[in-house]
Design a protein that fits this description.
The complex is a heterodimer.
Chain A: E1 22-29, E2 32-39, H1 44-51, E3 70-73, E4 76-79, E5 92-94, H2 108-115, H3 125-136, H4 144-151, H5 162-176
Parallel strand pairs in A: 1-5
Antiparallel strand pairs in A: 1-2, 3-4, 3-5
Chain B: H1 25-29, E1 45-51, E2 57-63, H2 65-68, E3 73-78, H3 91-94, H4 98-104, E4 107-108, E5 120-121, E6 127-133, H5 136-143, E7 147-152, H6 159-162, E8 178-186, H7 189-194, E9 198-206, E10 218-223, E11 230-234, H8 239-250, E12 257-260, H9 277-288, E13 292-295, H10 298-304, E14 311-319, E15 325-337, H11 345-352, E16 362-371, H12 385-403, H13 407-414, E17 423-428, E18 434-437, H14 442-453, H15 455-464, E19 470-483, E20 489-495, E21 501-505, H16 514-526, E22 533-537, H17 554-581, E23 588-591, E24 594-597, E25 604-606, H18 607-611, E26 632-637, E27 643-656, E28 662-672, H19 679-698, E29 730-734, H20 756-767, H21 782-791
Parallel strand pairs in B: 1-13, 11-12, 15-16, 21-22, 28-29
Antiparallel strand pairs in B: 1-6, 2-5, 2-7, 3-6, 4-8, 8-16, 9-14, 10-11, 10-13, 14-15, 17-18, 19-27, 20-21, 20-26, 23-24, 24-25, 27-28
Classes of the chains: A alpha+beta, B alpha+beta.
Chain lengths: 178, 795
């Protein structure tokens, strides 16, 4: 998945006249090193979207409830609207764009959401996919309660959740066996 | 469900009727969706709106000097800065159809909305000023520096108080706070009530809740320096209407405005109307000379984007000794909020869906739409139907209790039968024609729902008594939905020189999967493989006319336009092939993208060869003088009447009398939407609608204090259900094709959302029958259920 020689992701120049303090941060995003100047108050969601152009991270509520902006920070699902970019210094971040870069085949989790029709408008989908990805990367199969708990951190307004549960079930079945 | 379990192609090889996996998904799964906020416009400034903190107040002064001096601020506007632009009206929605005007003479009063409030504010959240800055952070910093002085005025939150003679006027140019009145009478309801064996008389309230798409509203605008035109990216459900409104407001021709509804993160009606922000942003792009982007935050979406559902029904049913309903009377009060945005749409939908699937000969319905000091209310998935079905089905349950008949049996006794189709209700439909149910088998819907729900099992458990304070109950609800609202939708099909087929439709998608389902229709109509079709929806350059994806209309209107355009293009392809091959068109057939002689071994030609003929140097002038790109067809489908979908829901719940908690043990839905193009997508639409209905029934409410302050302005207070709250559904379909269109389809986007409030209220009431509880209002939160138990028998 990661290119053999990682090329840094270029961060866009920040806008003029930010009034708050600035920090230089270095971190890894989708396997590539990134170094950028960020102001204290810049949310990770806005850093990913506006500075790195990774717009697959969707902002739905900006107060940590809907889960649409979830990414994996050091393999853990994190709401990027509740964390500042400067707090992510030295971390490894994975966004939805990093799962199957370019024309790479969809991951089994992505494929499951497609096959089970676990998505309609697609806005909440990257968050669900990343949380499910984290579930499949656990060493032990998560039990029903853990799965329900993980999914309850995400809102979907289109599907009624049934097909999302099916997709998660399929992905976990492929990873851990039926 | 996996690929393996998708239904196989029909014997005739048609694409319609198959659960074709969505072509939309791959892009969205890779994070390559293009929602408005994802589309980078270099040099864009971001807008942030200052909104009224008062529900009703006079604006004494606005001082923007400090905001203008803030870092990164490009411009700050107040009402005075946009005073030269006309106030906003949702013109199309406010139009009364001629037939309706003639027969019922409804009153619809216009309340144009200023783009930015200048004199007074009428709800918390009304835009008062707007800051344009280098980014949203800086714009919001500057918002805090805008100094507005208000003199608060009297607040009206309760629509019934708003109607009292001494209520303060919210719109001073109007004689009172009434925005809409409409009434209808059929037969002789007064005599029927006087002679009735039984009458129930109740007051039911549908509470206010909201669409809450996970993507909030957003719009960006850019003047293209090359063409000079305005390019608009918007999450709108009605791009052509938005184009016309922007052009009108800015004094431009429609050709000077290009609206593209790209990926949209759910709409549900909330994005189907026009808002002032959608006029200010394009204006700013022109005046400031830079691209402008605005994206709503969640608090703005909850408090300031349109609300819905709040109605009061004073409903009466009269029945004879056999349990046949002989008359209905309803006085419906619709809380419009601060502005009349969409006129008759919701009130009249409530009126003309009240009878539902039931045969009722004498009818007396009055509806009044009332202005209050709350955010304006407009259509949201169901648009007046969930409210009216809540009242009707609750009244049916009360009548069943009064008569001592099982609720499902009372319903069965009063249904319109399949042999009565097409059935004329005696009312006038929303387009002003005699209301007719085109098709359906309502008794079969109910039979199947009853069979699946196991009424006897529930009754046996009830007889055995509550266990650990947990009470079981069952509820039923039925509805009809007139779908496929006109006036038209457009489909244009072009055969590209590559042989690929481009289908453009007026209706955009907010997750409904048009790129898949419309391509299925086109593939069958033309005779080409599914995967050579590219679908464009909601781009005003791709189709000159269009209406949009609202009112369960896209599949009926755009689908049938696509079908007809496809059939016409098919003819053109065959004719072009006949000319090219020098044979008679009669002797040719088209399938799988190849036109071939019906005789074995005869000539054939593929689409690319046919459409790819170009006037290149060195090629002779074609004998027929035609080039490939001329294979094109545009169709505007105008539905002759409504395609009426229908459904029966049943729910079994367990209510914990100690905690007030409700568990849905079994949720049954049997629905009919005629022929189904893509069963997987259709099932997803119905499921999603039911989830929103369950949210409204049990969790969601937009609450206002008596001061007009919204109290549920975040997702911590406004409870959208998660996966844990929505059970798996037990779903079945019946198929009664609509005779109103070639495809025999009916709309189903809204249907699922119509019945859950009614069915769950009925089930909870049934469970709590030992306490004598009557459910008159939702949502059935634990505290409300506890209140019901505590106060039961006292009302």
């Amino acid at each position: 998945m990661t290119p053999s020689v990682p090329t840094p992701l270029a961060a866009r120049t920040p806008p003029l006249a930010e009034p708050s303090a600035w920090h230089e941060i270095s971190l890894t995003v989708n396997g590539r090193p990134v170094t950028a100047q960020v102001e204290s108050r810049l949310l990770l969601s806005d850093f990913l979207r506006d500075r790195l152009g990774l717009t697959g991270t969707h902002v739905g509520c900006e107060h940590g409830v809907c889960g649409a902006c979830t990414v994996l920070v050091d393999d853990e699902p994190v709401r990027t609207c509740l964390i500042l970019a400067v707090q992510c210094r030295g971390t490894e971040i994975r966004t939805v764009e990093g799962l199957a870069p370019g024309d790479a085949p969809l991951t089994s989790v992505q494929q499951a959401f497609h096959e089970c029709h676990g998505m309609q408008c697609g806005f909440c989908t990257p968050g669900f996919v990343l949380t499910t990805t984290a579930l499949t990367e656990q060493s032990d199969r998560p039990d029903g309660e853990q799965v329900a708990d993980a999914l309850s951190g995400h809102l979907c307004r289109c599907t009624g959740y049934r097909n999302i549960r099916r997709a998660v079930c399929q992905a976990l079945g492929e990873r851990f066996g039926e | 469900m996996s690929h393996d379990s998708y239904p196989q192609p029909h014997g005739d090889g048609s694409w319609i009727g198959r659960s074709v996996p969505r072509v939309e998904d791959d892009r969205l799964l890779r994070g390559n969706g293009r929602y408005v906020d994802d589309i980078a416009l270099p040099g864009a400034v971001e807008a942030a709106f200052l909104r009224s903190p008062h529900a009703h107040a006079r604006i004494d002064s606005v001082d923007v000097s400090a905001a203008l001096a803030a870092p990164g601020v490009v411009a700050v506007w107040t009402g005075d800065d946009v005073a030269d632009l006309p106030a906003m009206l949702n013109k199309e929605e406010l139009r009364t159809p001629p037939g309706l005007a003639e027969l019922l003479d409804p009153v619809v009063r216009m309340t144009p909305m200023p783009l930015l409030a200048a004199d007074k504010v009428l709800y918390v959240g009304q835009p008062v000023a707007v800051v344009f800055a280098e980014n949203r952070y800086l714009a919001e910093d500057a918002l805090e520096l805008v100094d507005v002085r208000y003199s608060p005025l009297a607040v009206l939150v309760d629509p019934e108080l708003s109607l009292t003679p001494d209520a303060p006027l919210l719109h001073e140019e109007l004689p009172d706070n009434t925005a809409v009145t409409v009434a209808t009478r059929v037969g002789d309801p007064d005599t029927a009530f006087a002679n009735a064996h039984a009458v129930v008389s109740e007051r039911f309230e549908a509470h206010r809740y909201v669409a809450s798409p996970i993507e909030t509203r957003a719009i960006s605008a850019q003047v293209d320096p090359y063409s000079g035109r305005l390019t608009i990216w918007s999450g709108t459900q009605t791009p052509h209407r938005l184009r016309d409104a922007i052009a009108h407001t800015l004094g431009l021709g429609p050709a000077a405005v290009h609206v593209i509804a790209a990926d949209v993160g759910g709409g549900f009606g909330q994005k189907g109307i026009l808002y002032v922000e959608e006029l200010i942003v394009p204006h700013a792009a022109r005046r400031i000379g830079r691209p402008v982007l605005w994206r709503e935050d969640r608090n703005e979406n909850l408090t300031s984007s349109s609300h819905a559902r709040e109605q009061i029904h004073r409903i009466e049913l009269a029945a004879d000794s056999e349990g046949l309903i002989i008359a209905i009377r309803d006085r419906i009060t619709v809380n419009f909020g601060a502005y009349n945005m969409t006129g008759l749409v919701v009130p009249y939908n409530s009126l003309c869906h009240l009878l539902g699937p039931y045969r009722i000969p004498n009818v007396d319905i009055d509806v009044v739409g009332v202005l209050t000091s709350t955010t304006f209310a407009t259509p949201y998935r169901g648009a007046g139907r969930p409210e009216t079905v809540f009242a009707m089905e609750r009244a049916m349950d009360r009548l069943a209790a009064e008569l001592g008949i099982e609720p499902e049996k009372l319903r069965a006794r009063n249904l319109v039968g399949p042999d009565a189709m097409p059935y004329a209700t005696g009312l006038v439909d929303r387009s002003g024609r005699p209301q007719t149910y085109d098709s359906g088998d309502y008794p079969e819907l109910l039979r199947r729902a009853v069979a699946k729900a196991d009424v006897q099992g529930v009754r046996a458990r009830q007889r055995a008594g509550a266990r650990n304070g947990k009470y079981v109950g069952i509820g039923f609800a039925m509805y009809i939905e007139a779908t496929g609202l006109g006036p038209f939708e457009t489909a244009r099909i072009d055969i590209a020189p590559s042989g690929r087929v481009r289908l453009a439709i007026g209706a955009p998608s907010q997750g409904q999967g048009h790129r898949t389902s419309m391509a299925q229709i086109a593939a069958d109509a033309i005779g080409v493989p599914f995967d050579v079709i590219d679908v464009v929806g909601g781009d005003t350059e791709a189709t000159p006319f269009g209406v949009g994806t609202i009112a369960s209309r896209a599949l009926v209107n755009a689908g049938n336009a696509t079908h007809r355009a496809g059939r016409l293009v098919r003819e053109k392809i065959v004719e072009a092939a006949a000319r090219r091959l020098g044979v008679e068109a009669d002797g040719l057939g088209l399938s799988d993208g190849v036109v071939a002689s019906k005789e074995p071994g005869g000539p054939s030609i593929g689409l690319a060869e046919l459409a790819g003929r170009a006037p290149l140097p060195g090629t002779p002038e074609p004998a027929d003088g035609r080039y490939g790109t001329e294979i094109s067809e545009t169709v505007h489908f105008r539905p002759p009447g409504f395609a009426v979908s229908s459904g029966a829901h049943a729910a079994v719940v367990e209510v914990d009398a100690h905690t007030g908690g409700i568990e849905i043990l079994h949720y049954v839905v049997v629905h009919d939407a005629g022929n189904i193009v893509n069963p997987m997508i259709a099932e997803g639409q119905v499921t999603g609608g039911i989830a929103q209905g369950i949210g409204g029934a049990l969790y969601e409410e937009m609450v206002y204090g008596p001061d007009g302050q919204p109290r549920t302005g975040t997702y911590m207070d406004y409870l959208v259900p998660t996966s844990s709250e929505i059970p798996d559904l037990d779903m079945e379909e019946t198929f009664t094709p609509s005779p109103m269109n070639d495809l025999g389809v009916k709309g189903l986007g809204e249907g699922g959302a119509i019945a859950p409030q009614a069915v769950l209220a009925g089930a909870v009431e049934d469970a709590l029958r030992p306490f004598g509880v009557v459910v008159r209002r939702g949502p059935l939160s634990p505290s409300r259920v506890r209140d019901l138990i505590r106060t039961a028998g006292r009302t």
